[in-house]
Amino acid sequence: LTLIFKHNPNSNNKINYKSFQNAYKSIHLKDSVIKPVLLIVSDEYSSPDNLYTLFKDSNLYQFSTQLKKDGWEVRNNSYSYETSTIHSVASILNYNLSLNKDYKESDLAAIEYNYLKHSLLIDSLYKKDAKFINFGIFDIDNKKKYSPLYVYPESFTENFLLYSCYIFAKRQLTNFNEGKLNNKDELIMEHNKRIINDINSEIKKADAKTFIKIHLYMPHAPLYYEPEFKKLELKNVNDYLQYWNFTNKKLTEMLSKLDK
What we know:
alpha/beta, three-stranded parallel β-sheet, 5 strands, two-stranded antiparallel ribbon
């Protein structure tokens, strides 16, 4: 049996991961009352300014306009240096590593070990006696992922098998159940529903000095939230726009609960 194996699928160059410089900025709030801090990631969410360049429709700003009325600070444009979720999240949790042009060459195993299992932000919070709750899709520091939606190697064996013909061969067998090796639509939909419907009750249990990371897998494909949103196949940008608008609706519900 011959196995084809390549340790790093994304780069032919060896990268010195310790050489990356972050873009740390200190933030101080006037309000001295200690409150939980929430980071809500809405995966593959396009800014309204960006969508407006395509559709020229002022209705795209309805969600942000309502947020402003409700007292939120809103920014209608954004830019990411990364096209990979795992790179983006790891960058955020380490004070914007992706400002370094070589960062995007990092392979998944290096990202997982260097920046998710050893997050500078979480380490800093622990030193301040703050707690961390992970409702994300990656293991971060010592906190397990909330849902296994993203395939990435968490050990040498998994790294070996993920990029070998072993997985290819297994997938050809009709009785092989890939389980967590594949992003099942139902698993993603159930994850989104739990986050939107149940997260408020979970957060109520949190101490005031807590950082909570939430990862909503929307409007990321699959475009699927039955029975409210019948599945679309993402054949064009209009399909995405429908799910983007639906995501705004669900975010409104979620934020309204959190606001109370």
